[in-house]
């Protein structure tokens, strides 16, 4: 993996990129949580998501939104962060023109960005949401977009968070025709602060993406 700089709408975006040795390997973009809560591309969860895709043969990139660490500009609004996400998706696609699959994975607020980006990018073939921020409740951006994905959540998260995940699953099915498989990581909370919890989240994500990617080859 290498550090790279991507030209963004408000300046340079700092990113880390792994190029698969496999020709036409599928792609993945990792979206970290809310930068105002100190999440960034090198936090534990973002790195674990990155490694899960890397270790099953994807070309994958993670990055800092504008205003975060070495990315230029001021910390952005949702719409500004979505512009940064679009820039990074374009970048990895332009550097892997033979690849026809791209996945998105996000943690916390990044999980919401995954869903919004998927509504705008019909080429997204799969996605993963890790402990989505349960304080966000605006589903107005959803439209029919048949797909399937994974929701990973700590089994020790609050009852409110778990109830929200159930509600999100129902909303996605009804409004967007999206099937969401849920896996709850035993003993974990939303931070995956223990090494065993983080390892299990990594393993569950890697297993799901690997299975779905192999099944899609048969279609």
Low-confidence runs: none
CATH topology group: Rossmann fold
Structural class: alpha/beta
The helix tally amounts to 5
Can you write the helix and strand succession as a string? EEEHEHEHEEHEH
CATH architecture: 3-Layer(aba) Sandwich
User: What amount of the residues lies in strands?
Assistant: 15-25%
What value does the average pLDDT take?
92
Number of domains: 1
CATH class: Alpha Beta
- Count of beta strands: 8
| Main sheet attributes: strand count, strand direction, barrel closure | 8 strands, mixed
The gross shape turns out to be globular
How would you write the strand order of the largest sheet? 1-2-4-3-5-6-7-8
What percentage of residues falls in helices of 4 or more residues? 25-40%
Termini Cα gap: 31 Å
**At the fourth CATH level, what is the homologous superfamily?**
Alpha/Beta hydrolase fold, catalytic domain
Q: For the CA atoms, what is the radius of gyration?
A: 16 Å
What does this protein structure show overall?
- The structure is a single chain.
- The protein has 219 residues and is an alpha/beta fold.
- The chain has a single domain, classed as Alpha/Beta hydrolase fold, catalytic domain (Rossmann fold).
- It has five helices and eight strands, in the order βββαβαβαββαβα.
- It has an eight-stranded mixed beta sheet with strand order 1-2-4-3-5-6-7-8, with helices on both faces.
- α3 links the parallel β5 and β6 (124-130).
- α1 (44-54) runs parallel beside α5.
- The longest helix is centred in the C-terminal third of the chain and has 22 residues, at 195-216.
- The radius of gyration is 16 Å and the shape is globular.
């Amino acid at each position: 993996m290498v550090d790279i700089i991507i030209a963004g709408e408000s300046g340079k975006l700092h990113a880390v990129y792994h190029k698969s040795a496999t020709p036409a390997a599928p792609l993945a973009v990792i979206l970290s949580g809310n930068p105002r809560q100190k999440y960034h591309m090198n936090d534990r969860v973002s790195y674990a998501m990155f490694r899960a895709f890397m270790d099953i043969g994807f070309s994958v990139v993670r990055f800092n939104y504008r205003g975060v660490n070495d990315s230029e500009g001021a910390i952005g609004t949702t719409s500004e962060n979505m512009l940064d996400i679009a820039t990074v998706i374009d970048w990895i696609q332009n550097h892997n023109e033979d690849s026809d699959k791209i996945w998105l994975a996000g943690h916390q607020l990044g999980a919401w960005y995954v869903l919004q980006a998927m509504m705008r990018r019909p080429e997204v073939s799969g996605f993963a949401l890790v402990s989505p921020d349960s304080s966000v409740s605006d589903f107005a951006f959803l439209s029919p977009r048949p797909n399937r994905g994974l929701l990973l959540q700590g089994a020790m998260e609050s009852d409110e968070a778990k109830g929200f995940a159930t509600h999100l699953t129902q909303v996605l099915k009804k409004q967007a025709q999206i099937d969401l498989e849920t896996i709850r990581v035993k003993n974990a909370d939303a931070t995956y602060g223990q090494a065993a919890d983080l390892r299990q989240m990594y393993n569950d994500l890697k297993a799901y993406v690997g299975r779905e990617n192999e099944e899609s080859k048969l279609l």
